[in-house]
């Protein structure tokens, strides 16, 4: 048996976690041979409810579930964790503006970033789900000066999966027959679900669907899917969000299939002309526990307009929390370039092989 990995989860008594924790304990995220320690974190008021969830986890007698610990503070809860799933967040209350929501969450995620910086394993991988996910990820990352910004991501895999599922229904195939969907930008209604590189049975998707359907129905439907579910169910998406968290972390830690593209919210390194310094959903491939942006994709004029709209929204969100972003991490967040080639990760700070190294000239992605 391998050594267990430590997975910290905030908002562990909430709706998403009620699906998520059982999937992790069953081995869906880290693999069927990887024992896990669950470090569950909640607000003090929700500890009793969390105890109930822990009892249920225990009652499932999962062979891979090594230990469960419960915490009412992130400093203790993040201790030595290898993975941190930041699910808990303040929901939007009555009369609250979007900017108020961004600000109250900014304080929560600033504290979480500091706690990760001080207590998590040095190689921790962080996934922010709590909304506004992209800007929360930025705040957490900016508050963790000793970690690399590349260790932080936000969840846009749910949007990716939604787009994949909807296209499959439209084409009368199953999701496994659909590849290379891309979600660009913010996890919000300005996101851009891009089918220009997608395939159905290996054949370009755009040749198999009506362009008017794609622009007038598919795009807005993916963008507004969260609200559509709230309207129908009376509650926000939880099980599908849990599945998306499992998928994103599984790919990040275990890799993507050869040739497969997935969408992940990561710090922009300027790729595709997106301004540096914001968390933006890009097409990526993963291997060796690292992600790499897929470069060289054609961006049409239509796509460029969509990318710009979602980029502007993220820049605006950033301006709302600018005063909470420590200056000391500005440079590391404005100068990140990550390029994973042949298993070697090259950082802009000069670590890793030199630019002349054969790895730089070899355009092979493992
Ligand atoms: N990025 C995405 O794709 C996506 C998808 C769905 C939901 N979400 C977001 O995920 C978040 C959680 O959704 P949910 O349905 O599980 O909500 P929920 O309200 O059911 O649960 C949230 C839990 O987080 C806890 N919490 C709040 N602040 C906390 C803190 N500072 N530390 C620890 N725990 C804290 C609450 O006590 C609650 O139990 C929401 O912000 C939601 O908007 C994001």
TrEMBL record:
The keyword Protein transport does not apply. Residues 156-322 form the Lactate/malate dehydrogenase C-terminal domain. It catalyses: (S)-malate + NAD(+) = oxaloacetate + NADH + H(+). The active site is at 187 (proton acceptor). Residues 5-145 form the Lactate/malate dehydrogenase N-terminal domain. Its EC number is 1.1.1.37. Belongs to the LDH/MDH superfamily. MDH type 2 family. PANTHER family: MALATE DEHYDROGENASE. This is Malate dehydrogenase. It comes from Amphritea japonica ATCC BAA-1530.
């Amino acid at each position: 048996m391998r050594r267990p990995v430590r997975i910290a989860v905030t908002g562990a008594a909430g709706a998403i976690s009620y699906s998520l924790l059982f999937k992790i304990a069953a081995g869906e995220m880290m693999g069927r041979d990887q024992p896990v320690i669950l470090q569950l974190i909640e607000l003090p008021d929700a500890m009793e409810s969390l105890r109930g969830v822990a009892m249920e986890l225990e009652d499932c007698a999962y062979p891979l579930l090594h230990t469960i610990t419960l915490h009412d503070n992130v400093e203790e809860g993040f201790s030595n964790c290898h993975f941190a799933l930041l699910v808990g967040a303040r929901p939007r209350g009555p009369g609250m503006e979007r900017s108020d929501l961004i600000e109250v969450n900014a304080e929560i995620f600033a504290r979480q970033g500091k706690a990760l910086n001080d207590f998590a394993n040095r190689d921790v991988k962080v996934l922010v789900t709590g909304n506004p996910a992209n800007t929360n990820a930025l705040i957490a990352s900016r508050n963790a000066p000793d970690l690399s910004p590349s260790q932080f991501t936000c969840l846009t895999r749910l949007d990716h999966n939604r787009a994949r599922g909807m296209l499959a229904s439209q084409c009368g195939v199953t999701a496994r027959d659909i590849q290379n969907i891309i979600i660009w930008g913010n996890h919000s209604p300005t996101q851009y679900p891009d089918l220009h590189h997608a395939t159905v049975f290996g054949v370009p998707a755009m040749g198999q669907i009506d362009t008017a359907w794609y622009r007038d129905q598919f795009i807005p439907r993916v963008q507004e899917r969260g609200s559509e579910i709230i309207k129908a169910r009376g509650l926000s998406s939880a099980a599908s969000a849990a599945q998306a968290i499992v998928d994103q972390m599984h790919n990040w830690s275990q890799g993507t299939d050869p040739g497969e593209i997935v969408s992940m919210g990561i710090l922009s390194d300027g790729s595709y002309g997106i301004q540096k310094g914001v968390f933006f959903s890009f097409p990526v491939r993963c291997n060796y526990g690292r992600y790499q942006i897929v470069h060289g994709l054609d961006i049409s004029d239509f796509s460029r307009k969509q990318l710009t709209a979602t980029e502007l929204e993220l820049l605006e969100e950033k301006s709302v929390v600018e005063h909470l972003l420590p200056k000391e991490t500005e440079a590391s967040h404005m100068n990140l370039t990550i390029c994973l080639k042949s298993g070697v990760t090259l950082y802009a700070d000069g670590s890793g092989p030199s630019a002349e190294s054969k790895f730089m000239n070899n355009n092979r992605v493992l």
